[in-house]
Structures are given as C-alpha cells and as structure tokens.
Amino acid sequence: MDKVQNNKAWFLVLPVLVLVAFSAVIPLMTVVNYSVQDTFGSNVFFWEGLGWFEQVLTDSRVHAALGRQLAFSGIILAIQIPLGIAIAVCMPKRGFWASVCLVLMALPLLIPWNVVGTIWQIMGRTDIGLVGYTLDQVGISWNYARNPVHAWVMVVMMDVWHWTSLVALLAYAGLQSIPQAYYQAAKIDQASRWKVFRYIELPKMQGVLLIAILLRFMDSFMIYTEPFVVTGGGPGSATSFLSIDLVKMALGQFDLGPAAAFSLMYFLVILLVSWVFYTVMTNLDKAEGR
Amino acid sequence: MSLAWMAWTGPTAIFFGVIATLLVIFTILGIRYPETPRRGILTIETTRGDRLFITLLGSAFINAGWLAMSGQPQYWALGICAFYAAAVFRWV
C-alpha cells in the first residue's frame, strides 16, 4: 500500500525549536565561545585556543570531582534501585492502603530541593536534629561539617530519602501492569515467591527500571542544590561534586574560560550516557514490540 | 542586534557552521533518498542521522582524549576522526 508522506506536520514543531534555541542552543554556543577565550570582565575576550580544555582534562581537581561524582551516583543507584523494587513489591496492590502508600511515597518527591537540604541539615545536627542527636547518644561523635565520611553518609541518606520513592513508584507501575494470568500460571507450577519475582516480575519491570536508572543517574550526576545546602561541598572538598565544583570555578573564581571548557566536558559525558540509555530503551521497546 | 555578548570567534563560528551544514545536508539527503534503518556491528538500528550523531559524539571524545594524552598537534586527531567517521558510516 502506498503511504502518503506529508512532512508539513514538522512545522508544528517550530515553536519548540525556537524555545529550545533560546533556552539551550544559544547559551551552549556562548559557552563554546567562552571555552576558547579568556576574559577579565567588561565583555573583553582574548583568544586562548584549546588551552582551557587541556587544563581541565589534566586537572587533578576535576578528576577528583568526577571520581566523587561517579562514586556518589554509583552508591545511590546501588541503594535506591533494590530498595525501590523491594518497597514496590511490598506495597499493597489495591484498596485503601494502596492509595495511602502511594500518597506517602509521593510526598518526598514534592518537596523542593533546597528544602530537602535544609531538612537534612537540621536532621544531622547533634543538638536539635533527630539523626545527629540519636547517633550522638549511641556514642558516635557525629559531625558532618568536619568528618568527610559523616558528610557523605548525610548526603547519601538525604538522596535516598528524597528519591527512592521515584524508583518505588515506577517499579510499582511496572508491577501493576503484569497480567494476572502470569501469576496464575506460576501458581499452577507451584513457583516459589522468589521465582515469581525472578522470572515474572523482574523481567516485566525491565523497561520501567531502565527509565528509573536513567532518571536517577542523570539527576544524581547533576546534583547541586541538596549537597550545597547541607555541606556546601565540604568538609574541604569532600562532597564537591561536579556541578558544585563547576559553580565554584565559574562564579566563585570567575574563571569563565576553564569553567566553560569544564561544562562542555561535563555535557559530553551526560550526552554519551543519555544516548546509551536512550538506545538501550528504544531497542528494548522494539524487541518487546516484535 | 549586537551579538558581542556571545563572544564569537572565527574558529567557533566555523565549528558551528560545519555542524549546521551537516544537519542541512543530512536533512536534504533524508528527504531526497529515504532509507530504512539498518543493523550494524553495534546491533542497534541506526539511520544516517544516528550515524552522524555517533560520529560527532565519538569525534568529540577522540579530540578530548588526544588533547589530554598525546601532546601532539590537534589536527592529527581530526585525521583519526575522519577514519572513525568512515568506519561508523560503513559498519555501524
């Protein structure tokens, strides 16, 4: 059958293109322009070439920030994904308590990032904070402002508290979409609870879990506000993740050139990871659709 | 309208000009010679546009790696990118 091809619908995308041009493309072009120049302010620029890129690529400070960033994303994924799945599996499937659980799970997601930071900053205090006071009473000399390990524990706990619900809700949606026939078949075969999870629930959740991993990875990779409010990137630079370090460089030191080169490298990594996830997801959809 | 605030330079203008030209060429190619996606060594379905994206993204990393590790002039990296691009369009 001959299909009529009409490309006029593409004109409907124009408004979005114009918006994206102003909100993303033009700023990105400006950053690229900054990255090859040096400035001392007053909009006067000097040609620098690829010097800033070389500096950023070989800078131990940037490498350390990237290492911390990867460690942070790895840790929170390793906690949030299994925990989210476990919560989703335990949540009631229908009825009054299912609604209650859903609302409770959605609550942390509704709180603005800086408020989450403030909540946890207070929680960690040993004089008035629940976490800090309890740990202090247990005998741990808790001080997240001076001890790097404590600072990391705080930041990770905060992120887990804030975002595990997202994974749980996505996994829950995946679980709800599994037809009852699969469970009935498993019952006939006398499959154990573990086997039901391993061979029915987990494979059926694959799609939503990939989305959850992508979302959580990207969000954690770009995290700024929460650790900035809680630890300010400290003690020292123990919790200075990429974006915190970038802002320090761009606004704190006003090194626009190096900061521009840094942000472009950051952008490239995010672009690569997004592309990999997107490709895996779309291929998964096609494989399922066949 | 002054564009001075964007701090344009010749090389960056050429850089964006090349990317814009590539996008236009690939759009025209897409309209003139419609294609079906194919599967290459990455075992994923790719169109011409996908292969262009993989080429550009990979070239960025090749250039960054060259700059960080080789200490040689940057245009050699462009040579490697040309081979990489040919390989992507042939086998991916």
Would you kindly provide a written description of the structure presented here, covering whatever features stand out?
By secondary structure, chain A is an all-alpha fold. Chain A has a single domain, classed as MetI-like fold (Orthogonal Bundle). Chain A has 12 helices and 2 strands, in the order αββααααααααααα. Chain B is mainly alpha-helical. Chain B folds into 2 domains: 1-34; 38-92. In chain B, 67% of the residues lie in helices and 4% in strands. Chain B has a two-stranded antiparallel ribbon with strand order 1-2. In chain B, a hairpin with a 5-residue loop joins strand 1 (38-39) and strand 2. In chain B, helix 2 (48-69) runs antiparallel to helix 3. The mean pLDDT of chain B is 90.
The string of secondary-structure elements of chain A, in order, is HEEHHHHHHHHHHH
Chain oligomer state: heterodimer
Across the major sheet of chain B, the strand order is 1-2
CATH third-level topology of chain A = MetI-like fold
Q: What is the overall silhouette of chain B?
A: flat
Class of chain A, according to the CATH hierarchy? Mainly Alpha
Task: Encode the helix/strand succession of chain B as letters.
Answer: HEEHH
Structural class of chain B: mainly alpha
- Integer tally of domains of chain B: 2
Strand order of the largest sheet of chain A: 1-2
* Rg of chain A, nearest Å: 24 Å
Any idea what the radius of gyration of chain B is?
16 Å
Structural class of chain A: mainly alpha
